[in-house]
Specification:
Length: 558
Amino acid sequence: RVVTLVNLRAYWRFFVVIRRFSPLIVAYWRDRKRFFVVGGSRDVDEATQRDRAEILLDTLLTLGPTFIKLGQLLSTRPDVLPPAYIEVLEGLQDDVPPAGWEESKPVLEAELGPVDETFDDFDTESISGASLGQVYTATYQGDDVAVKVRRPGIETLVEADLRAITWSLPIVKQFIGGGRAFSIENLSEEFAKTIREEMDYRREREMLEEIRANFADNDRIRIPTAYESASGPRVLTMEYVGGTKISRIDELDAAGLDRTAIAETLQEVYLQMIVDDGVFHADPHPGNLAVADDGTVIFYDFGMSGRVDPFIQEKIIDFYVAVARQDTDAILDTLISMGTLSPNVDRDVMGEVMELAIADARGEQIEQYRVNQIIEQVESTIYEFPLRLPRNLALVLRVATVVEGVCVTLDPEFDFIATATDYLEAEGYYEQTARELAQGAATQLQRTTESLFTVPPKAESFLDRANRGDLHVDVTIEDESRVLDKLAMRIAYSVLLAVGVLSATILYSFANEWRLAAVVLVLAAPLAVALYRSFRNKRTLPGNPQFTRQGMRERQNE
């Protein structure tokens, strides 16, 4: 009977979802084909994108709790939506009117029994309402507690909506490119898994207790205690811990608290969760973070939490070390190995993007012309082609994005890289990385030495076959970006330069002809300059600044 009810509701919700989203679907279709079937694509300016984002926001709010959660997740996915949409959806809060006590009471009593017999005292007015549950205050065994109760009937609504979303995916994918199709399918799977986990309060209690144990010796944060005897799949009873909401800057200043120290604590805690522990609180928005009178950071709501597998932990460490060293090649290699960047990405462009991002993360003043060259192209293409988010990285990105927003609110000049560098050094990760690099270099040296002995015989066999005329090679190469031409020129420069240097060395060492050796070096110098310039040549791109911290400050001043 429940399955039938879910199916009927899912059919109805599917038609409602399609009807609500149809204006946006038609508009996007026209963007790709101006006259639906024929005609070129049309440009959409930022103002139009913002208008459509407002329509999307209103649609998500109208469709209810499941889609509010979906909107929150979309606000952290630059691989799915353009920046204008992200900026609008970032303000989407999981704050909906609470259900009446008459509706919540049966849920609570079905889990724990009569309220009067379970709790010493219970306030029937909820202190907060969210899309999946709501929180009440009570007294349990003499302790002040917060009681989280799942919203009545939310299970069938969520399951129906998830089916409607799944049925809608083939339609949506018809109107988008391959890169975003991958991301949207990935997003759908991640969202279904996350929202089901968030509705299971037993899992939330287990994650809360595990994370709390990991920070048992850290007196800079506080995680409430859960009461297993007063909890169940739909009810979670926790210690009630009051504090000042972390985004209330004026109140923190009035209490004489160091906001920079609070931001450092927050980032270090999340670094430990992700890099060391492998289990993390995944919803660090200001509503779930508070600060005690002594500056202790308080964490609430562990419904959205996740785990990081060892491979991703290792790559995140590599990423942070590369960022601290400002090694853009290592950054790109790490992102590619994690599956976040396509191997075919334009490394020159993305290298400049990383340099800009590092400077922005440090709060540095960025030359405006560089911003103008890079940002617009990145913002208009990063969600289309190079950036992809595998499911095991999506929650990590959400955490990084939201934590950054909270830290910048606390301290607009907060240096993420310096804090991360200090943490990695204190934990010994730099030494570990150095050892791995040394081992890698030794292995490469061994392979190179072996090649010196194995390549000549192979080359001789190859030339013999060519001499006999029985060597056939069929090659078809498309090189629109002239990559092979550039590579050939670099090889030619390198070979000629090496010949020049080697000749000068022989003349000087064995023939004692230093003047002639100097002439050879002078003749080889232009080759060295040409080789250097071939590696330093960067592509410039037109654009306008959007989301750099410098741009944000300018908009605030305006």
